[in-house]
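Supplementary Data S3. Sequence and structure tokens for construct A.
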Amino acid sequence: MPAELSAVVLQEGRLLAWAHHSNGLIAVTKNSLIDISDQVSTVTPWTDSVQAKWEPPHLNVVFQGQMEPKPTSRSWILDEASQLPRAVRDRVTSTVVVDRVFELPNAGKVRFVARKDEKSVLWTAIADDQAASQTEIGQLEIAKAVVELRSSFGI
């Protein structure tokens, strides 16, 4: 493992896989995804992950932190097809326990994602139409949908 990666990995839990990408290095640890691009390190916890997609040689991961209003998508072109895409899929799958999309009459299309950490499950509602989802009726529909999903999944 390259030295610039090992210094960051030590703080983030056990290393599962790493690879070169078009601008640097990427690593998967038990707790986080580490990206070193142009000598800048970005560490994103798996509890912020929403989904991942691997279409060789492109790896795309969508994240949304608890305080972020919208998800962000990050992608990398991997130099080699290592075990990294599989490790990313395994970490996202172990974090995201529910991922459903519903069309709500007054809030529009909304993706509901339940992500777990060691202590709890965090529900996130990602609306395509931010304006509609912020109205009082939109908020009520989203809240009702979360209650129904929690009940149906026992979460």
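Construct B, processed identically:
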Amino acid sequence: MAEFQGKAPGGGAGEMSHRTKHLRPVIALRPGEIAEARRLRRQGEQPEEIASALGVATEEVEKALVQMRSPRPETTRGTINVTLAAHRVFHAERVGREPVWKTVDRMIGELLQLRAEKEASATRTERRATKPQASQLALL
């Protein structure tokens, strides 16, 4: 089986792209005010109420809230941050035009099956090693 070793992601991995930051509107609120506005929104407050509580313009609160992340209750997919080497392996393992997610699921299934077989084999070997052989019993 071929092994692969990629390079670890760089120091800025996972950060927002500079282009994305540039495209977003400027929010005329301090970071603490933005955090407070989002906290209040999670508690169910409306943008107008939040603006009134913070003493800022409703438009600024709305800009802060639009960029707020919210959890998806039923996610069906996830993103895996892998090295480019691992990415190439997954694409090389695709069968025909199989979607990459199916390839990953299939490969994970194969890995788990191989691990289970290896564990079962090791358990059988261990049992044989501790079980006295017929020749050993004759000596007793």
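The helical segments are 18-23, 31-42, 47-54, 58-66, 84-92, 100-130, 134-139. Residues 5 and 85 are 7 Å apart (CA to CA).
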